[in-house]
Specification:
- This protein is an alpha/beta fold.
- It has two domains: 12-217 and 246-267, Type I PLP-dependent aspartate aminotransferase-like (Major domain) (Aspartate Aminotransferase, domain 2); 269-395, Aspartate Aminotransferase, domain 1, CATH 3.90.1150.
- Helix content is 38%, strand content 17%.
- It contains 13 helices and 16 strands.
- The protein has helices at 2-9, 18-29, 37-50, 61-71, 88-96, 141-151, 203-213, 256-287, 315-318, 322-333, 348-351, 361-369, 381-395; strands spanning 54-58, 79-82, 100-103, 126-130, 154-158, 166-167, 170-171, 178-182, 196-200, 217-223, 233-236, 239-245, 293-294, 302-303, 309-313, 370-373.
- The strands form four sheets. A seven-stranded mixed beta sheet has the order 1-9-8-5-4-2-3, sandwiched between helices. Strands 7-6-14 form a three-stranded antiparallel beta sheet, with no helix packed on it. The protein has a three-stranded antiparallel beta sheet with strand order 10-12-11, with no helix packed on it.
- The longest helix has 32 residues, at 256-287.
- It starts with a helix and ends with a helix.
- The structure holds pyridoxal-5'-phosphate.
- Residues 60-62, 86-87, 89-90, 132, 158, 160-161, 182, 184, 196 line the site of pyridoxal-5'-phosphate.
Length: 396
């Protein structure tokens, strides 16, 4: 029983092993630098895995989104569209740069942004759209790219839940101008609890992201022959260098220890995702006859990597609302379920920006009825069976 509870409670995707331990030791013995060769190696590996030209590793998924907004040139007064059903980091990225967010309601089949409602939200100030590949299921990228091209919008994919997910055979993160990933401890792979990546095929965006990630520092090397020494210049060998700052950026760097672990995790990601997909299939098979549960729909052209397993509970048909479901499952069976997410327009941050209940009916219905069941690559068949039978028993 206690092992089963462990399998169900620990929702973290992270599975570290000997390879990660060895990588950590190797980097410690090399003085554990920040943003050194291991970061460059992880970036190359990630770009190759994603089939995108540039990858820049960063401190977390939130900084990836913030840098993406800087990369595409978001300024005060610009408007950015996104879904109200996401973690606040998605919407906070443009807001912290002085832009305004406008939410677009979701599609109740996939829980992703409803592509049929995007155009009606576009105004002359709209500069970008951030589709979120929620729970690991890719958004409708053909439609999003087509609408964005028509209206001159930049697309920034929030792929925090979706490393390895595919839309029509192509990995997410490479469709828009920028793709952002998170390696937080609960994500499908992790770099020791925090981490992120910014992908782009655009050289200029890559340069801006790289500069603002590290204080917009440019280092210029100059031969002593041409260089007049002053207090900002330092000798390196026979050369001198000086440092300039193009603008004021921040420190959003990752450490080499994290990146070395990231390269090892990346080698496992497809295997870990496959276990999630298999576990999701097991849950869907076991729960499909239960009245009142709406199980996840996977579009036939999508590879959904099940960062989470979303279930909507119809209180009339199931005989219990979401709150009682969460409470009873925990107290009667020791199973913790999540609720991702309370729609962002309910939060003080966005109520203060003029949003009101009633504006996004699908997101609101999801907020009322959605729970996320435990899913992770460690789950045993026994643990999955326990989850299924416990949910069935709640109805009887
Ligand atoms: C959809 C989404 N976007 C962005 C983020 C931010 O990532 P991080 O926690 O690495 O900053 C998260 C984190 O949970 C997320 O779920």
């Amino acid at each position: 029983m206690s092992k089963i509870k462990f399998d169900l409670e620990i929702k973290f995707g992270t599975q570290y092993g000997k390879k990660e331990e060895d990588a950590i030791l190797r980097v410690i013995r090399n003085n554990a630098p920040t943003s050194g060769e291991e970061c460059i190696k992880f970036e190359k590996n990630y770009a190759a895995y994603s089939n995108v030209k540039h990858a820049r590793v960063v401190s977390n998924g939130s900084s990836a989104l913030f840098l993406a907004m800087i990369g595409i040139g978001i300024k005060p007064g610009d408007r950015v569209l996104t879904t109200p059903v996401t973690w606040i980091a998605t919407a906070a990225a443009p807001v912290t740069l002085g832009a305004e967010v406008d939410f677009v309601d979701i599609d109740l089949e996939t829980y992703n942004i409803d592509v049929n409602q995007i155009e009606s939200h576009i105004s002359p100030n709209t500069k970008a759209v951030i589709p979120v590949h929620l729970y690991g299921q890719p958004c409708e990228m053909d439609e999003i790219m087509q609408i964005s091209q028509k209206h001159g919008l930049s697309v920034v994919e929030d792929a925090a839940h979706a490393i390895g997910a595919e839309y029509k055979g192509r990995k997410v993160g490479g469709f828009g101008a920028v793709g952002c990933f998170s390696f937080h401890e609960q994500k499908n792979i992790s770099t020791l609890g925090e981490g992120g990546m910014v992908l782009t095929n655009d050289d200029a965006i890559h340069e801006r992201v790289s500069l603002y990630r590290s204080h917009c520092t440019r280092v210029h090397g100059v031969s002593t022959k041409y260089c007049k020494l002053d207090e900002t210049q330092f000798p390196i060998g026979k050369k001198f260098w000086w440092q300039d700052f193009d603008d004021c950026g921040y420190n959003f760097r990752m450490t080499d220890i994290q990146a070395a672990v990231g390269s090892e995790q990346l080698l496992k990601v497809d295997m870990l995702n496959q276990k999630r997909i298999d576990n999701a299939a097991y849950l869907t098979h076991g729960l499909k006859e239960v009245p009142g549960l709406k199980l996840p729909t996977v579009r036939p052209y999508n590879k959904h990597v099940f960062h989470l397993y979303p279930v909507m509970i119809d209180p009339k048909e199931f005989g219990m609302n979401k709150e009682d479901f969460i409470y009873n499952l925990l107290h009667q069976y020791g199973i913790k379920v999540g609720f991702h997410y309370i729609p962002l327009h309910y939060s003080t941050a966005f109520k203060n920006r003029g949003f009101k209940k009633g504006q996004f009916p699908n997101a609101e219905k999801l907020g009322e009825q959605l729970v996320t069941l435990p899913i992770n690559p460690r789950q045993t068949e026994e643990a999955l069976e326990y989850l299924i039978t416990s949910i069935k028993a709640l109805r009887s």
